[in-house]
Amino acid sequence: MRESDIIIAGAGLSGLAAAAFIADAAPRMTISVIDLQGSPPAPDDAYCGQRVSALTPTSVARFESLGVWDHVSTAHAKPFSSMRVWDAATACGEGVSFNAAQLDKKTLGVIVDNIALRHHLYGHIAENDNVTFVAGAIQSVTADARSIRVMLDDGAMHDASLLIGADGRGSSVRKHCGLAIKAWSHDQVAVVTQLMPDISHEDCALQRFMPTGPLALLPLSGGRVSLVWSTTPVDANALLAMDDEAFSVAVTEASDEVLGTLRCLMPRVSFPLSSQYAKDPVSERAVLIGDAAHAIHPLAGQGINLGFSDAAALAKIIGDLGDGDPGDAPWLRRYRRRRTADNLGTLYGLDLLNRLFAREQGLLADTRRRGMRLFDSSLLAKRLAGGHAMGDALGIMASREGVS
Fold first, then answer.
1. How far is 81 from 219, CA to CA, in rounded Å?
2. Do residues 18 and 311 touch, judged by C-beta distance below 8 A?
């Protein structure tokens, strides 16, 4: 039998962030991280991998405070200082534009290589004597008033005061704890790769909404861009079947040639798009964070930032406990109050945006375009929306982590 104060199920980005934040906020707590993936591979020294994330300045600041961000090289992280959003019926310059100076910021965010960030988080946590990595898959979870017990596939038993489920969309913690979800498909598939444009991206993130779904071009180091093209399953299959030359023609046309000709640099991968959330992220001595609690459409790149905000809010609560019991129901209810509005508001807001931009004709489309023009002309609206998207109040909105 192994005993810890806290068990974290999942060693992806949200799980590792939770371990790092909690170890920093509550250094006397012992933590066991149940790891299905094993230690991450070292990132390629020359460039980002296929899967990247758009981190908000708030997320970056959290990793800076831990000393993790200093190890992420410029090859694996690219700040962007502006953003343009437009739809299929308008030109790029006629849509909505943001820039960091309007929001009194140096950057709007940073595109980071997922492998690199996980690699450095893992290394940072492994240096902490109070954190232990345990290989295995959860087979059962039982909880009582005093503790929660996890049995792994090798028969080993692990007891703790609190179990944190950070094990992704198909969370075994969520299933074993009997936490119900609401889920729906977007009837879209995301096609992902890296491209080299003819025209410099100038550190600008681009997103064009089309009836079949949004196409995003995210700036990377070396002049490259990361493509996330959300479209119908039929169109996605066609894009995956094309040779590189035909795909270059298709993505150049779909992006309105805003960066000139786009050449494919990596194999294309795809994944289906859906949204879901746990109707309650808390059960007896267990709590869900990240994709285990809420999985959203990637059109604004907010999913991983919500997971980091979950982890930071939970760490703050645990840090405030002193010698208290982290699995006590009042503390878990506080976590639920702090995170529910932000998580569900973002999830449904992005779902609404995706549906809204799918309308190319009619009154709704005309109203949307008028609204975009009004929004683009209002600095206050940009500060409100930009502040929320960056996880920062900008002196106007409530903190991303909410209130007690």
1. 10
2. yes
Average pLDDT estimate for 255-265: 96
CA distance 22 to 84: 36
Q: Please give the C-alpha separations between residue 229 and each of 121, 208, 239, 248, 273, in angstroms, as whole numbers.
A: 28, 10, 10, 13, 11
Radius of gyration of the chain (CA): 21
The β-bridge relationship of strands 6-9 and 31-35 is parallel
- pLDDT for 1 equals 63
What average pLDDT score do residues 370-378 get?
59
- Which residues, at least 6 apart from 217, have a Cβ–Cβ distance to it below 8 Å? 195, 197, 201, 205, 206, 207, 225, 226, 227, 255, 258, 259, 262
- Would you call 36 helix, strand, or coil by DSSP? coil
Cβ atoms of 206 and 251 closer than 8 Å: no
Q: Which two tokens stand for residue 123?
A: 């290394």
Rounded Cα–Cα distance for residues 216 and 212 (Å): 13
Residues 6+ apart with CB under 8 A from 225: 194, 195, 196, 197, 201, 217, 218, 219, 259, 262
The strand pair at 294-295 and 269-278 is best described as: antiparallel
Greater confidence (280 vs 51) lies with 280
Residues 6+ apart with CB under 8 A from 166: 8, 9, 10, 12, 14, 15, 18, 288, 289, 290, 292, 307, 311
How high is the pLDDT of residue 361?
55
Mean pLDDT over each residue of the chain, to the nearest integer: 88
Unique residue bearing structure tokens 């087979």: 139
User: Considering the entire predicted model, what is its pTM?
Assistant: 0.90
Contact indicator for 400, 342 with CB cutoff of 8 Å: yes
**Taking the CB of residue 398, how many other CB atoms lie within 10 A of it?**
12
Cβ(368)–Cβ(85) under 8 Å? no
d(CA 81, CA 385): 16
Q: What Cα–Cα distance (Å) separates residue 186 from each residue in 17, 275, 332?
A: 28, 7, 31
Tokens of 145: 């008033």
- Asked if 331 and 287 count as a contact pair (C-beta separation under 8 A), the reply is no
Per-residue pLDDT tens for 336-359?
A: 999 999 999 888 888 877 777 766
Distance CA 126, CA 132 (A): 7
Q: What is the pLDDT of residues 199-230, one digit of tens each?
A: 999 999 999 988 899 999 999 999 999 999 99
In the numeric block, the tokens 């290989």 are attached to 135
Tokens 């094990």 locate to 167
